[in-house]
Specification:
By secondary structure, this protein is an alpha+beta fold. The chain has one domain: Roll (Pnp Oxidase, Chain A), CATH 2.30.110.10. It is built from four helices and nine strands; from the N terminus they run αβαββββαββαββ. It has helices at 3-8, 33-42, 80-87, 116-130, and strands at residues 12-13, 46-51, 57-62, 64-67, 70-74, 90-94, 101-110, 150-161, 169-172. Strands 1, 2, 3, 4, 5, 6, 7, 8 and 9 form a nine-stranded antiparallel sheet that branches. Strand 2 (46-51) and strand 3 (57-62) form a beta hairpin. It is globular and about 50 Å long.
């Protein structure tokens, strides 16, 4: 069981959508949390949406990893998304697929100087995912984020589906 699920115990439920979307009123067919974890772990690119200080939205694909049941995204602290997150931590992260959907709404928290154990896990996850030459040959070191550039996404709500509307599922977090 992931750290996220064991700490927060999200309960799968139906999202509230306007009439006409066909969302079932029963709980049969809800997706398991493993659907989210499997897709987030396997994803190569995550789409991240932030808001700048003037309220303008900004979206960009980023590299990241699912480690210990949480989504982490990275990139220079000088990127527009990092500057936006420094001003307003509200963030949406979603996958590229429009048919196997995972959407995480929450807050980004910068992780600076992660402890050695976590740095090793994160470096391995990123190296495994992006270390092949065809993916850029990126193999960070455990101390790669000592000066910033890494954000943990703390979910508020997660949505997922693979057969809309039948298995559309929502998990709420505190």
């Amino acid at each position: 069981m992931s750290k996220l699920v064991s700490e927060h115990q999200p309960k799968a439920q139906r999202p509230k959508l306007p009439d006409g979307y066909g969302i079932p009123e029963h709980e049969e067919g809800l997706l398991p949390w493993s659907f989210v974890e499997e897709r987030m772990s396997a994803a190569i690119n995550y789409w991240v949406a932030t808001v700048d200080p003037k309220g303008r939205p900004h979206a960009t694909p980023v590299w990241g990893a699912w480690v210990d049941g949480m989504c982490y995204i990275e990139g220079s602290p000088e990127t527009k998304r990092a500057r936006n997150l420094a001003q307003n931590p509200a963030v949406v992260v979603h996958l590229e697929s429009g048919s196997e959907v995972v959407i995480i709404e929450g807050e980004a928290e910068e992780v600076v100087k992660p402890d050695r154990e976590f740095g090793v896990k994160m470096a391995k996850a990123m190296g495994d995912k992006y270390g092949a030459p065809e993916r850029g040959g990126y193999k960070p070191k455990p101390n790669s984020w000592d000066e910033g550039g890494l954000h943990r996404i703390k979910p508020r709500v997660v949505f997922a589906w693979s057969k809309f509307p039948g298995d559309t599922t929502r998990w709420l977090f505190k």
